[in-house]
Amino acid sequence: MSTNISTTLDTVTIFFEGKSLTVPADISVAAAVLGPGHAGHTGKNPVMDDNRAPVCLMGVCFECMMEIDGIPNQQSCLITVREGMKVKRQNTLREKY
Amino acid sequence: MQEQYDVLVIGAGPAGLSAASTAAENGLDVILLDEQDSPGGQIYRSVSGKKSYSRFLSKEDRNDGLNLVDRFTKSGAVYLPKTTVWDVSHDGVLCSSDGESREIKAQYIMVATGAMERPVPFKGWTTPGVMSAGSADLLYKSSGIVPHGPVVLAGNGPLIPLVANHLNELGVEIAGILNTSPFQNKPKSMLRIPLAIADIPFLFKGLKMMGAMFLGGAKQYHNVTEIEAKGNGQLNQVSFVHRGQHKTLNAATLLVHEGMLPRTHITRMLNLEHKWDRVQRYWYAKTDTFGRSSNNAIYVVGDGQKVHGVNAATAKGELAGIDVARRLNVLCESAAQLQIAPVKRRLYKALAPRGFVDAFFAPRKNLFTMVDEVVVCRCEGVTAGDIRQAIKEGCHDVNEIKLRTRCGMGPCQGRMCGSALAEITAATLQTEVPNVGALHIRPPIRPVTVRELRDFPSAT
Amino acid sequence: MRQNFDVLIVGGGVTGAAVGYGLAKKGISVGVVDATPSVDRASRSNMGLIWCQSKALGNRNYVEWCFSSSKLFKSLASELKKTSGIDIEYTESGGLIPCLGEEEFTKRSDYLDALRKEAGEKGYPGTMLTRDELQAKLPNITFGTNVTGATWCAEDGLVEPLKLMFALRHGMEHLGGTLIPNTNVIDIAKTESGYLITTDDGEIECTRLVLAAGLGNRQLAGKFNVTVPVVPNKGQVFLTERVPDILPSPLLGITRTRGGTIMIGFEHEYVGTDTSLHTEKFCHVAKWATDIWPALADLRIIRTWSCLRVWPKDGFPIYDKIPGHENAFILNAHSAVTLAAVHIAELPDFIMGKEICKTAADFTLSRFDEK
């Protein structure tokens, strides 16, 4: 997933897996990581432990779940990028307690 | 703090926007809640945003979308974007925005949650790179991002040529179009053409789309079966059977589409009366022309009731808006009739070609005959074989199978596997889908944190 | 085609399936009729606790009955793995009841003392843990400031209740029993040699009849003009997203399944047969749960459900012959999961005409008449 066909728009910088990424402002996190981020996959399934990526981009499939600003299992297709946002792939179980 | 409105509308697509606008214009206190950050629904996603990637909509479509949004903005209805409704009762909803939940009450509730693409499991469909065709459409409409080529499109339905066209225009390499539609539909649908002629522009648009697909130069394969997405952790090939031969295409993205379904999570949670559409094979909430459901206080409007497309959805929303104004005595009967007549005409015009379209793009017979190893429930990793085994053990209702296999117990709450589960069960038991039950839907229909419940006003 | 069994059990939940399994193990021809999903089905909503501790002061037999069942679970789990192919995910987890505030700690402590006193020489396995001891037992959890400690009992345990039910049903079939699912009993008639059961899918004959239909027993027993003193008791459960294995022992009301989800729920309500979900109840439970374990607040709730417990009016099981019938039985138990193992071990002989074991001899129908 890649090509960004947008032009002349505001941008924000987010951090995907620690790397900074400049993306158009007000696109979804899922779009940002799939497009400019070349993420390929956004997480792993906790039962099958295989790579997953969004299917629907409209909040139905729950395959886009990512860790956003430390909060796991967020539906990245429903969340808009923000300056400085830290985004990580959802790696099976939540890590923090 | 409790908020109270005359009408609460869920969903800011064409139906929700026009319902809310109409009700508010007639003088009612209206609030509209939507998950997205800007109005328009999926079809007009981000149509009014400053980024406006909506250049991928045709000029007329974009104008229609902007007009809907504009009318809504001026109507005086309250708009609550980025808000997730997680429980609905006859007199209000519980919803969440920015990590906080609250209750909003209303005398009437209008469910306008639109449609989704029918999820159809096949081998390898959990591989990253496999997406719905509609998601590609949303991606360029809302973000200006196109899927990585080469792209293979597969399935059946008007969205395939539409998306193929757009991608082609945007310079994305299309490796092939796999048409899964059986020839069986064609003669049947021809019977419906006379009605369809009532909406000639619509028919023309569809034919134009299909015509343009050929001009795009992508290789098309008809009556394709056994589609499989291949790749270890990332899609790299799509294999299929065409004219008895196994074929393989290199692909970075596979876009699939097998028609649309009304999103019924809310209507089913409310236990509204539902009916089964035998042609399109989906459940829909039973309503009258004005969208009144089996529950006196609940309307269901737009494609979330029955998938009839954007023009019908807009008209249905308006009818509901007029009806609720009439019921709440801000609109007298004769004035209501004056408003109703032209909208009904528009609705019937929009509905005229649906019989043809529905029959032409009817789901094929073998849509759910997948082999045992195909994962059906993506969240819980339940295969078609697991489901068939549970049936063999005596589970004859989808809820019983869910308990036995965990199919439908994951975060998507059965949205992705529910229809496949019912179809597989019905096929295995050699019966019809209405005889195998429907998954129980319970709140929260969207995940909500324990904190939100703890901090909920009524808890303290 | 009319089916015929030595024993027909009406009700395929955990209790019916356990007794069916036990009978099949003895080589007895047994059928289990299970209704369509429209009826109340407590076995499908259970949290899977095998719970023995801190209950039933004043009924020493029931205490022993529970502990004896718990002791049988380990071998039952491995046996069911063989007979059914299903792993019931039994864990010798022990169980904890967390205490909020000093008062609750004292109350719990006093109750345990009373149970211990009642047990006398036999001893009672429950103990109190201070907050520090509780922390040592569950080192990965940061408890709320108001947590004062917990009760602990090593003999409590955990199973996956749905897998237990399906394993019992499946295992019974492997051992020669017959499951008749999706079938509703319409009528029961006494015949010369036994009973004739009319269902919505034909007739079944049997020599011995067992009513193990939970709340449904009330209606079925009506056919014998018998009142069964069980009432519906509503519970609501919510279940969160998956977490790592940080809760090896369940806190009563907060359980981690082997799959990783956390199940939360403890409320009991007498509200008739209303099973609608009430958010206020969930709010109340969420407050309680986060008071104990504040980090739970961050977890997202994936599913909820409610169900009606089968609640005999005094809380204790009913195992009895239907008055006037030598070969028809009523079985009702609230703790069907906890008692499943002892039901398998002890109830088949009772159904086949032997005296019930001494520990269970008081769990009669007639005890309700005396009051």
Automatic annotation (TrEMBL), chain A:
Pfam families: Fer2_4
Keywords, in A-Z order: Oxidoreductase
InterPro entries for the chain: 2Fe-2S-bd_N, 2Fe-2S_ferredoxin-like_sf
An example molecular function term from Gene Ontology annotations: oxidoreductase activity
Name the record gives this protein: Sarcosine oxidase subunit alpha
Source organism of the structure: Halodesulfovibrio spirochaetisodalis
TrEMBL record, chain B:
Residues in SoxA A3 domain copies: 379-451
Every FAD/NAD(P)-binding domain range: 5-127
Entry keyword set: Oxidoreductase
GO molecular function: oxidoreductase activity
Entry superkingdom: Bacteria
Residue spans crossing the bilayer: none
One Pfam family in the UniProt entry: SO_alpha_A3
Annotated InterPro entries: BFD-like_2Fe2S-bd_dom_sf, FAD/NAD-bd_sf, FAD/NAD-binding_dom, Metab_Enz_Cyan_OpOx_G3PDH, Opine_Oxase_asu/HCN_bsu, SoxA_A3
PANTHER family: ANAEROBIC GLYCEROL-3-PHOSPHATE DEHYDROGENASE SUBUNIT B (PTHR42949)
Descriptive protein name: (2Fe-2S)-binding protein
Source organism of this protein record: Halodesulfovibrio spirochaetisodalis
From TrEMBL, chain C:
GO CC aspect terms: cytoplasm
Residue ranges occupied by any FAD dependent oxidoreductase domain in the UniProt entry: 6-342
Membrane spanning stretches: none
Pfam families assigned: DAO
Coiled coil spans: none
Top-level taxon of the source organism: Bacteria
PANTHER family: SARCOSINE DEHYDROGENASE-RELATED (PTHR13847)
Protein's name in the database: FAD dependent oxidoreductase domain-containing protein
Organism: Halodesulfovibrio spirochaetisodalis
